[in-house]
Every structure is written in structure tokens, then in C-alpha cells.
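User: My instructor asked us to take a sequence, write out its structure as C-alpha cells, and then describe one feature of it. I'm not sure where to start. Here is the sequence I was given:
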Amino acid sequence: MTDLPTSDRAATSPLVLITGPSGAGRGTVIRAFEDMGYEAIDNLSLSLLPHLLSAPAGPDAAPERPIALGVDPRNRDFTVEALIDAADRLGALSGRRVQLIFVDCSPDVLLRRFSKTRRRHPLAPDESAEIDIARELDLLRAVRRRADILIDTSELGPRQLRRGVEDWIVPWGAGRMAASIQSFSYKCGLPRATDTVVDCRFPRNPYSEPYLRECDGRAPEVAACVAAVSRFAVFHAQLT
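Assistant: Let's start with the prediction itself. The C-alpha cells for your sequence are:
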């Protein structure tokens, strides 16, 4: 593994390596990180890690995002030693805080999951799933011991697992809710996939005031016009 340049932006962005046996829910965990704002890359070859982390950023580039990388034992260059070495050394080499997450599951539950989906085990599709599961768990035993965070999905469904990742991984109070606000016309119908609709038709339209027509919604004069409506204070308090 080659040395990687560090930067102030990278130093504040964590790097999460996610691995585990096939069928344990590694893909679900990676998608949960992606929903939390991480740059998520699944099934990345370990040999490409240095190239990914050393990619230069231009002067106008956006701040470095935290990265979640799914490491799959099926990759041709995967070895337990290489993954443990990456987890041990990448922090110092890249300037990022590195965590290794192992998504675990009991053998009987893994076997039941493969039986329900009728999927072949990806490591050796010509053999029985029971043999392949035992072989993969034995292969990853040292990685499991090295992991910073162990997530056992034996009794978790996909939704519970996603919620658990948010609760376990993100420190309390550190996660931020993303809100998408959309203005619409009632005559065209409600927007699809809307969680909450707030009826804001009761204030008079500031555009009806000639002196406000050149302003936008950020102007203090527009805010004062809307706030002057008699019911606005109660509405604002209840909405907040």
C-alpha cells in the first residue's frame, strides 16, 4: 500500500470499511450509510483503495464527504491480511478516521435466507450453501475479531437493520434530518410522495403590494408583510 497525501478536508471525513459474510445484510448497511450522506461504493477491490483516496481534488471542489466502502470476499484480490492491513494503516496514510464494520449473522439464519431466495452461495455455487457458509465464516474469522463495530443481523429485518445503523453508528445528536420543501398549486393537485402538507394560503400575497414586487422571499419587507397577518403568529408557533 502506497503513501497517500493528507488534507485538512480529508482529516475530518471518516472512512468506513464494511464487510461480512454473504447474506448477512452488508448491502443494506452500505445503503443506509449512503442515505446518511456518505459516498458509498460497494464491491471495491482492495488494490483500488489507494487510488481512490489519493485522487486529487481541485481548488473549487466540494468538501470531502465521508466514505463507506463495501469490501466483498468474492473479489479476486481479497485476502483477510490485505483487509486488516487496510483497516490498520489507512487512517495514518489518508488522514481519515477509519472504522471497520463487520456485518455478522448466525449460520442457520444465513442458510434459511439462501433457502428462501433460492440463491446459490456466491463463493462456490456448485456446492451446498451450508458448506459454503461455513467456509466463508471461517475465512472471515480474523476480520471479525479485528472489527471496530460488530452488527449481528440474525434477528433483524432490513428495516430494523437500517434503523439500527443510524442509531448505532451516528452519535446521538450528530445526525441531521434532511427536509425537502416544495411550493405547489392546489389546482394542480398535491405533489406525490409528500409526508406533510402545510396550507399557507391564508396570508395575503406579498406580490399584490407594488412596492414588494421586485423583492424575493428572503427580503425583510416580504417577511414583515406575511407576519402582519393576524393569524400568522399562532400558525408559526404551531408549525414550529
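For the description part of your assignment, you could build on this observation: The chain has two domains: 8-169, 195-239. Try explaining in your own words what that tells you about the chain.
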